[in-house]
Design a protein that fits this description.
Layout lengths: L1 H32 L15 H29 L7 H12 L1 H21 L6 E9 L9 E11 L2 E9 H5 L30 H16 L5 E6 H11 L2 E3 L4 E3 L4 H11 L8 H15 L3 H9 L1
Helix pairs in contact: 1-2, 2-4
Length: about 300
């Protein structure tokens, strides 16, 4: 009996070490994650910084997961009687939280794999960005009046541009009749009407199909962003100066100011130029953000 208690006490000490090491590795992963802005900096494309960020995150998570798995096995074999009675409640509370820790770690590993796949480490990737105006209702969260294309190569940003969806839709050579319910809004179906299906994957596939026909090349995926996301990130980053429009865009006035410029501004031939001009400045603000702000950006 004494030997069994001694072994449990030894295992308990080892569990403490393993969880501490796992926590340290997770902290290292979080530190690397806070440097994600470098991936969005086109000036860093020729360096190995973006690749190293992903590699560091994955390596740290692998160490954390390995230590966590060893600790979990040891916890299962510990005789709880060796825990002093006044500490037993804390120990059991900790033990009950292990599945939650495991879920967090699993999510982190999945995220790292996702990030590695999306940023074009092995081959270049292009993604269609749909900027949904959620004050103009559509089934997938708003009218995609503005679109963008973001390109990754070698683990970093290669190219990024934004344009008015009507400029692209004007390139469609085929006259496609839209669903009956859309016909009172538009006589033809194009990318601007692709957000018709309430499940986003179907609308995304439709948008990608139209984009291919209109732009003449395909993309690897579609991402929808609405103004709430931009506003949330501006709360973290701060305001962006737009002197040619005599405005400073912030979380407090972004939606109202941009919509006013688009609807009533002097540029009636290309009214969404304000969004095109804002996008690269927003991107620069993102990749130059302090590392601690990136954790807040991920929360947004």
């Amino acid at each position: 009996p004494g030997f069994g208690k001694l072994k449990s006490a030894k295992d308990l000490t080892e569990v403490g070490k393993l969880f501490a090491q796992s926590g340290k590795a997770m902290s290292d992963a979080l530190s690397s994650l806070s440097k994600t802005g470098l991936i969005l900096n086109p000036k860093d494309n020729h360096t190995d910084k973006p690749l190293k960020i992903i590699s560091d995150i994955k390596n740290a998570l692998a160490i954390s997961a390995g230590n966590f798995d060893k600790a979990k096995i040891l916890v299962a074999s510990i005789d709880e009687a060796v825990i002093p009675e006044e500490k037993r409640g804390q120990y059991l509370d900790f033990k009950n939280k292990i599945p939650l820790f495991e879920e967090y770690l699993g999510n982190a590993v999945e995220y790292a794999d996702f990030m590695e796949g999306i940023i074009g480490i092995d081959k270049s990737k292009k993604y269609l960005l749909l900027f949904n105006n959620n004050s103009e209702l559509r089934p997938t969260g708003g009218f995609p009046g503005t679109y963008g294309v973001v390109s990754f190569a070698g683990g970093g940003l290669a190219d990024f541009f934004v344009d008015d969806v009507y400029n692209l839709d004007g390139q469609l050579k085929t006259n496609i009749i839209p669903p009956k319910q859309l016909q009172h809004i538009t006589p033809t179906w194009a990318m601007r009407g692709s957000s018709w299906f309430s499940d986003f994957p179907t609308s995304a596939q439709k948008a990608m199909s139209y984009f291919n026909q209109e732009a003449g090349y395909g993309v690897d995926g579609a991402i929808a962003i609405n103004s709430d996301i931009v506003v949330g990130i501006l709360k973290v980053l701060g305001s962006i100066n737009m002197p040619e429009y005599d405005m400073v865009l912030s979380a407090d006035n972004f939606v109202e100011s941009v919509q006013e410029e688009v609807e009533y501004g002097p540029n009636r031939t290309q009214p969404k130029t304000v969004v095109k001009d804002f996008a690269p400045r927003f991107l620069e603000k993102l990749y130059t953000a302090d590392s601690e702000k990136w954790i807040e950006i991920f929360n947004v």
